[in-house]
């Protein structure tokens, strides 16, 4: 029984398709091995079976080849290479830690708000009606006026202190 030409079309029978896949996959991986050995190549192949299972081959291994490929792609696109990606991964971990800390602080704040609300010490603006908002506005305006008055008084007193600390220049007056 000799070799015969197989028409290139999808094999319809599911069982035959799986057998064809297995044989062709092994042949493909063997050819990749030959190519890598004869030409000194780094090569990676990933295939998915008709059932969805992944198979891979790599020389020296798939991870190294993919990392190298992604490093070249990143550099070509103006993005960092493999080493820089390592630094980015560290920074990403730090960022995730900071996000966790932020979430913890938000939870603490929510707990404190609940405690203050239960004591009647806190009221959110969103929960206020029109009269309460008007009262809040009025009290904020009073606070603003008082702050301006305090500021003016502090400026005046600091000016007086500066004048008092100045030593008279001989020959003046």
Describe it for me?
The chain has about 170 residues and is mainly alpha-helical. The protein has a two-stranded antiparallel ribbon. It is elongated, with a radius of gyration of 38 Å. The chain contains four helices and two strands; from the N terminus they run αββααα. It folds into three domains: about 15-80, 3-Layer(aba) Sandwich (SRF-like), CATH 3.40.1810; about 80-120; about 125-165.
Number of helices: 4
- Strands across the major sheet, in which order? 1-2
Calculate the mean pLDDT score and round it: 81
CATH homologous group name of the largest domain? Transcription factor, MADS-box
Strand content: 5-15%
Largest sheet: 2 strands, antiparallel
Unreliable spans are none
Strand count: 2
Radius of gyration, CA atoms, in whole angstroms: 38 Å
The domain count comes to 3
Distance separating the two termini: 128 Å
Oligomerization state: single chain
Q: What is the 3D shape?
A: elongated
**Helix-strand topology string:** HEEHHH
- Percent in helix: 55-70%
User: What CATH first level of the largest domain would be assigned?
Assistant: Alpha Beta
In CATH, the architecture of the largest domain is 3-Layer(aba) Sandwich
CATH topology-level name of the largest domain = SRF-like
Helix/strand structural class: mainly alpha
How would you describe this structure in keywords?
173 residues, mainly alpha, SRF-like, 3 domains, two-stranded antiparallel sheet, 7% strand
Entry summary:
This protein is mainly alpha-helical. It is built from four helices and two strands. The model has no long low-confidence stretch (mean pLDDT 81).
């Amino acid at each position: 029984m000799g070799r015969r030409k197989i028409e290139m079309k999808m094999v319809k029978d599911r069982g035959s398709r799986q057998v064809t896949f297995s044989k062709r996959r092994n042949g493909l991986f063997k050819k990749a091995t030959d190519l890598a050995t004869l030409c000194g190549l780094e090569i990676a192949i990933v295939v998915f079976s008709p059932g969805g299972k992944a198979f891979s081959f790599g020389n020296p291994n798939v991870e190294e080849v993919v990392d190298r490929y992604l490093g070249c792609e990143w550099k070509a696109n103006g993005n960092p290479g493999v080493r820089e990606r390592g630094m980015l991964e560290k920074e990403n971990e730090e960022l995730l830690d900071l996000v966790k800390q932020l979430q913890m602080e938000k939870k603490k704040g929510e707990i404190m708000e609940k405690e203050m609300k239960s004591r009647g010490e806190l009221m959110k603006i969103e929960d206020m009606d029109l009269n309460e908002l008007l009262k809040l506005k009025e009290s904020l305006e009073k606070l603003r006026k008082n702050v301006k008055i305090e500021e003016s008084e502090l400026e005046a007193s600091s000016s007086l202190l500066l004048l008092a600390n100045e030593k008279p220049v001989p020959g003046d007056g």
